[in-house]
Amino acid sequence: MSNPNETKPFIPHIAILTSSGMGHLTPSFRLAALLANNNCLVTFVTTHLTVSLAESNSISSFLSTFPQIISRNFTVLPLDPTSVNSTDPFFLQWETIRRSAHLLSPLLASSSPPLTTLVTDMMLASSFVPATADLCLPNYILFTSSAKMCSLFAYFPTAIAAYDSNEKPDIFSNGIHINDSLTIPKSWLPPPLLDPTHLFATQFVANGKQIIESAGILINTFEGLETESLQSLNRGNIVKGLPQMIPVGPLAPCDFERGQGLPWLDNQPDNSVVYVSFGSRTSMSREQIKELGNGLLTSGYKFLWVVKDKKVDKDDEDGVEEIVGHEFIEKAKDKGLVVKTWVDQVGILSHQAVGGFVTHCGWNSVVEAALCGVPMLAWPQGGDQKINANVVESRGLGLWVESWGWGGGELVKAEEIGTKIRELMINERFKIEAAHVKEKANNANKNVRALINQGL
Ligand code: UDP
Ligand code: UDP
């Protein structure tokens, strides 16, 4: 991103184009803040129409905390939802933005001072990398999941090219064999990928193909967490000709993300509390919520549980008591805190009272737990989360009970949940490894700042 021919101090002007969902917005904010705090001018491009309240609230907070960041609103064209094979509002929003790509170039071309670099969210690569080619700017991809997931993302178009519905009805039966040391089992694949006509699958293939044309891939991970995957990607062992992977993680949280604190947590002993959350867009069945609640009670540990009843927060109308039941609230009185609001997750994970995290393994959650040195019980619910759970387990940061399957599958019983939580909280090896990775995370964070100051 540096310009060696400039004699005047060179200030890069970087446009960041984000997509939809907190799992994508949050790392975009953090990257924007990192660049803006390290001598770059940043233009942040959003669509004002968001799926969730969490997204619109955080965009407003982000922009008001960073008045030096230029905000550009990108008006998208409406999408006919019957024209695509998915009803997931976040996937539909990605598609809506993708199909409006041709409208972005004129908006960016009018930037003043002129842009020097673009950064495009991974879910928009297929249409925005070509649509902005006329601007002749280096276009980097922001990859918001793990390097292991990036290996699948980059390789999957090759695998799918072999698809022949007549002769090979199940090309996935032996998993995706990427190279001699990496095969992704079929059961780990994001479920929508198993149907090549699914909107998610078509986006995944198109985006995966396109990243090869980008200037580089900024990824929210770090050497100390995913050494091997980063090496394989950068040595051409996954896909030949893949641009450089630039680990920029762990992307540090911005000040505006800080919450007010939880006095309940302040009163708990060190390492005594299990934090339970499944991210911003995963809801569980009431039946599974009941088992989880009872599992927490039988674990014998105190807990802080963020309950989510609906995928999109605007639809989440029932109160916490209605969801978990009055009986549970009574039993949990001295044992835990159950909330149904947006919480400051990094604030919680970095609190000394928290000793373990039951997580769906959304990649941001994994990186945040790594940054805070908190061991995890991985309970993947969908998407890239089994691949991320494998990273957690193989890095020694916690445990994953593979037989629990995806969320919405077989009911996982309270007793088993309680047993695994005890294993998580007791195991000293997880604590030692998590402390070790935390140290590496903090060092990686310093290195990224230095890298940006040198012009990436
Ligand atoms: N998050 C939060 N408070 C909440 C729920 C989520 O701060 O109450 C944040 C969490 O810290 C993470 C992001 O939202 O940064 C969720 O991203 P992740 O990749 O973990 O999961 P997703 O929500 O995309 O499934
Ligand atoms: N994903 C991916 N490549 C794609 C589409 C999605 O790696 O082309 C990942 C994405 O980061 C996401 C998961 O697969 O975590 C499934 O999407 P989801 O809607 O859960 O997004 P999230 O909000 O969790 O990032």
Automatic annotation (TrEMBL):
It holds the Pfam family UDPGT. Its EC number is 2.4.1.-. Residues 427-454 form a coiled coil. InterPro entries: UDP-glycosyltransf_plant, UDP_glucos_trans, UDP_glycos_trans_CS. GO terms for molecular function: UDP-glucosyltransferase activity. Transmembrane segments: none annotated. Belongs to the UDP-glycosyltransferase family. This is Glycosyltransferase. It comes from Kingdonia uniflora.
